[in-house]
Design brief:
Elements (H helix, E strand, L loop, with lengths): L10 E3 L5 H19 L7 H13 L3 E5 L5 E8 L3 H5 L6 E9 L8 H15 L4 E7 L3 H9 L3 E7 L6 E7 L6
């Protein structure tokens, strides 16, 4: 799946036994977003937990583990997402979501490695775009995706919360 070295743990699929650990990581990411931007990324946690479980069971969640086996970072990948359909944007794309890391455990650059993994999966699956979405009011994350070369392709409202968000896209080339 992903090349490794002694300094870079492999990116592997998550398993159902990882749910509690990923749920904790999701909560940590949500708290971090609140301190950074003043908004919670996932306001409807019941919905976030149920999609987390479904993504794990569907084989869409990937994790990095430390040498003791603890999850340090994670990302979910899916063929598409209803957000893009709501915005009326089609096309051949892989969609990433729930890019999360534990800052106390993750190695520097793990988030970028996961995005690189997502880009490689996009190409491996013969797709032309890598997509994601984020709340409009999450300034730090909006700036982060812009710095990485993602472009806003429209806006929509999250059905679960009624909050406005951007749809982001990037070509899956080696930009990270």
């Amino acid at each position: 799946m992903s090349g490794t070295s002694p300094h870079q743990p492999a990116i592997r699929p998550a398993h159902s036994k990882d749910f509690d650990e990923l749920q904790n990581l999701l909560n940590m990411a949500n708290d971090y977003a609140l301190t950074q931007s003043g908004v919670r990324m996932w306001a409807n946690m019941g919905h976030a937990y149920s999609t987390l479980r479904a993504q794990i069971e569907a084989g869409e969640f990937f994790v990095v583990r430390d040498p003791r086996g603890a999850i340090t970072s994670a990302i979910a990948l899916a063929d598409n997402n209803e957000c893009w359909e709501q915005a009326g944007i089609g096309g051949s794309a892989l969609y990433f979501m729930k890019l999360m890391k534990d800052p106390a455990k993750a190695l520097p650059g793990e988030g970028l490695r996961l995005l690189g993994f997502a880009a490689a999966e996009t190409l491996r699956q013969g797709k032309t775009l890598l997509r994601c979405d984020t709340l409009i009011e999450s300034g730090a994350l909006v700036d982060y995706y812009r710095r990485l070369g993602f472009q806003s392709k429209g806006t929509f409202m999250y059905e679960s919360t009624g909050r406005p968000a951007y749809c982001w896209k990037s070509c899956p080339g080696p930009c990270w």
